[in-house]
Amino acid sequence: MTQFTFWDIFSNLLLATRWTILLSLVAFVGGGVLGLILLFVRIGKTWWLRRIVQGYTELFQGTPLLMQLFLAFFGLGLLGINVSPWAAAAVALILWTAAFLVEIWRGCVDAVPKGQWEASASLGMSYIEQMRHVVLPQALRISIPPTVGFSVQVVKGTALTSIIGFVELTKAGTSLANATYESFTVYGLVALIYFVLCYPLSLSARILERKMNAAHRH
Amino acid sequence: MPLIDIDALHKSYGETEVLKGIDLHVEAGEVIAIIGKSGSGKSTLLRCINGLETINSGAISVGGEQLVEDELHLRKLRLKVGMIFQQFNLFPHKTAGQNVMLAQQVVKKRRKAEAETKAREVMDRVGLGDKFDSYPDQLSGGQQQRVAIARALAMEPMALLCDEVTSALDPELVGEVLQVVRALAADGMTLLMVTHEMAFARDVCSRVVFMHQGRVHEAGPPSEIFANPKTPELRAFIGMAAA
Amino acid sequence: MQYHFDFTWLATYWPVFVDGAWMTVRLIFVGGVLGITLGIYCAWARALGPKILGYPVAVYVELIRNTPFLIQLFFIFFGLPSLGLRMNEVEAAMLAMVINLGAYSAEIIRAGIQATPKGQFEAGSSLAMTPVQTFRHIVLVPALQKIWPALASQVVIVMLGSSVVSQIAVEDLTYAANFAQSRTFRAFEAYFVSTLIYLALAILLRFALMWLGTLIFSTRRRAAR
Ligand SMILES: Nc1ncnc2c1ncn2[C@@H]1O[C@H](COP(=O)(O)OP(=O)(O)OP(=O)(O)O)[C@@H](O)[C@H]1O
Ligand SMILES: [Mg+2]
């Protein structure tokens, strides 16, 4: 049996952290793009399309992410696609992220005062023009803090992909814990790395929100 | 010995000195109206007497007990003086009766039955015997304020501090609250009230204290204060109040 | 290639799912009750308590909110025994859920406490109540009422998140799917069934919590009687 020093453990974990970061980015960017498309449907004028997107978000928010990962993993297989854990993880996380971002962003659009719609309508703007020039720019501002805040959930969510066999930080942690019998140290370090990834995001979300509230009052 | 004794009381919020040396002596059974412009420090004075604000210097004693800034002494002091707020501050999740019973049970450790008997007695006294089981949001402002008075009375204080108890009320509800206060005064309760109701002050109070820029600027019986104000500030204030 | 969905195996395996769902319900019941209780104490410490309590609680809250639940679970179940703290997998899962929900609900409840009008605290003080008495009898219930919907959402999130306790061999709803698929080789269908049950549990739990909320907080109904 090979001996692992503390630094062996730590450097192995750091190497695996790359994959956590990469998967988080893919999920967040992909989920953001899909979420934006769904947002336009969600606030659009076709009621049955709105309803479908609403059902989509409720489905993804009402079931465990782990189940979504399993269903993606085995479901893509059924379609005859040869899936790697990486692909299944990315697909599931993108769908999951999009579902949450749509809801967050819809709340931000709703938060734009009704007077803004009325004022822009009275200037003769079309629905698209109202959206583009008046409502969305304001909603975008409000949406930044909760969106940054949600990125923390995405990073933490990637930990579950270890269960379908994707090798990232958590998976590296379990492997190392099994190899070294140093569970306390290994999981302590894993937690610490996640904390270092997530805490700056949490903190900036809070600072942004405070700034926005302060700006709002003056 | 006076019931409430205030000597050289100073109170600042940060840089701004709000009370600049207040001396006030209140005998048992006195009914005192505190009048003055907005920002003259009337509320601050009452809040200091109730220990809701920490004082910078000077002394306050109630019933011979010195105000000392620790939790235990503050609570002892607060048992001697009750406070009625402009905004009633009833507990929204409790019925009127429960509002009146709560502090009796947790502070005075009265048993429930005993607290309820007392609560019904004071609720009758403020004319709300039939509203015992109503929640605050089912009561009018005037009724809520009377519950607040009952809540303070149930603790059997030696004096009541009232801070603009009718200012948050619709005009037609002011009368019922003042009537309760008038009855308390007639029963010999010591009252220290900040008020803008000049007619009421003239009628009911034994002494009027005019505050100006953090000081007691002028004080005396209502007949003198209102009929014969000595300082130009008081004259201006009364002129404004009359207008 | 055409795949044929097959759920016939459910005829034999449904009791496994019932047992699993029951375990998930038990976990969220214990986790919910104790987690919210812990959250109340921590929220008090953060919002009103002495700094010497407030700071460690802040650290606890941030540590939990910024690390994955799965890692918290592994740390408790695999890591703590080396400190002599040994527990079985169900106890570890419950502890992890309590600690996790405790941190999230602390933040939610704290917001409710901070939204309490100053006059409520002053009314308590002026009636000679201690700060703790004021919190317990005056501030707490209206504060909880204000944030109850957010708290209910968080409990549902923790219930859904509990699906990872199958990783330390707790026989919950996810474990049931793992078990069924390993015997039937019908993985997609097995996880599909579990997913549907989770969805139903989430909806039921939300309803139950909202009903509980009206039961605790609706003063109107009690007044009408
Ligand atoms: N918490 C506080 N922090 C800073 N300044 C305060 C605070 N409370 C009161 N002040 C200031 O102290 C001064 C006196 O306030 P106080 O409330 O005692 O006036 P008041 O005579 O009761 O006026 P009003 O008739 O408007 O109620 C005011 O200038 C006010 O701005
Ligand atoms: Mg005032």
Task: Explain this structure.
The complex is a heterotrimer of chains A (218), B (243) and C (225). Chain A is 83% helix and 0% strand. With 243 residues, chain B is α/β, with parallel strands linked by helices. Chain B has a single domain, classed as 3-Layer(aba) Sandwich (Rossmann fold), CATH 3.40.50.300. Chain B is built from 9 helices and 10 strands. In chain B, the strands form 2 sheets. Chain B has a 6-stranded mixed sheet, sandwiched between helices. In chain B, β1 and β2 form a beta hairpin. In chain B, 49% of the residues are buried. Chain C is an all-alpha fold. Chain C has one domain: MetI-like fold. Chain C is built from 9 helices and no strands. In chain C, α3 crosses α4 and α5 crosses α6. Chain C starts with 9 loop residues before the first helix and ends with a helix. In chain C, 48% of the residues are buried. The chains are: A mainly alpha (218), B alpha/beta (243), C mainly alpha (225). At the B-C interface, α2 and α3 of B face α5, α6 and α9 of C. Magnesium ion binds next to α1 of chain B.
Topology:
The complex is a heterotrimer of chains A (218), B (243) and C (225).
Chain A: H1 6-42, H2 47-61, H3 65-78, H4 85-111, H5 114-122, H6 127-157, H7 169-180, H8 183-217
Helix pairs in contact in A: 1-2, 1-4, 1-6, 1-7, 1-8, 2-4, 3-4, 4-6, 5-6, 6-8, 7-8
Chain B: E1 4-13, E2 16-26, E3 31-36, H1 42-49, E4 57-62, E5 65-66, H2 71-80, E6 81-84, H3 96-106, H4 112-125, H5 141-153, E7 159-163, H6 171-186, E8 190-194, H7 198-204, E9 207-212, E10 215-220, H8 222-227, H9 232-242
Parallel strand pairs in B: 3-8, 3-9, 6-7, 7-8
Antiparallel strand pairs in B: 1-2, 1-4, 4-5, 9-10
Helix pairs in contact in B: 3-4, 3-5, 4-5, 5-6
Chain C: H1 10-47, H2 51-65, H3 69-79, H4 89-114, H5 118-126, H6 131-161, H7 173-184, H8 187-217, H9 219-224
Helix pairs in contact in C: 1-2, 1-4, 1-6, 1-7, 2-4, 3-4, 4-6, 5-6, 6-8, 7-8
Bound molecules: adenosine-5'-triphosphate and magnesium ion.
